[in-house]
Amino acid sequence: MKQKAGSPSDLGWLLDDLVHRVPHARNAVVLSADGLLMASSEGMSQDDGEHLAAVAAGIQSLAKGAGARFGGGPVRQTIIEMQSRFLLVTVAGKGACLAVLADDEADVGLIAYEMAMLVTSMGDHLTSPSRTETAAEGRPT
Questions:
Q1: Which parts of the sequence belong to the Roadblock/LAMTOR2 domain (predicted)?
Q2: Fewest C-beta in 10 Å: which of 11, 52, 93, 123?
């Protein structure tokens, strides 16, 4: 389990549990809406976790833009299907997202369900304070 210093709570073990329980799930990260890594599952390097967080934030931002522009409404989940991987990203509280990387044999519906259950059960623990809130509290942004 890896976790960025100063994160709101210990999320790594929850991500580890998700990855170990769900067949073909490889890695999971919790990230801030602006792409900063908050926590990652074990077996993922810091560099890979940070890169996945940045990619997931970008994808989620593009999906939000499409939803707003074309009347689709708020984004529930974004799924990218690659030749040998899936990347699923979902909103995980105010200012945070949950991303899961899975093998192509994965049951995407099961992973989406497990992600939704994790987000629902953890609620406030998956919230990232906005940078302006952090600055107002006197901490560096």
A1: 12-102
A2: 123
Tally Cβ neighbours within 10 Å of residue 41: 26
* Number of Cβ within a 10 Å radius of residue 70: 8
DSSP state of 45: -
Q: Looking up tokens 């769900």, which residue turns up?
A: 22
User: What are the tens digits of pLDDT across the range 89-121?
Assistant: 999 988 999 999 999 999 999 999 999 999 998
Give the C-alpha distances (Å, rounded to integers) separating 98 from 20, 55, 61: 16, 12, 13
How many whole angstroms separate alpha carbon 139 and alpha carbon 57? 23
pTM of the complete model beyond 0.90: no
What is the distance between the alpha carbons of residues 114 and 132, in angstroms, rounded to a whole number?
A: 32
What domains can you pick out in the chain, each with its CATH number? 2-135 (3.30.450.30)
Residues 6+ apart with CB under 8 A from 133: none
**Token match 């560099």: residue?**
47
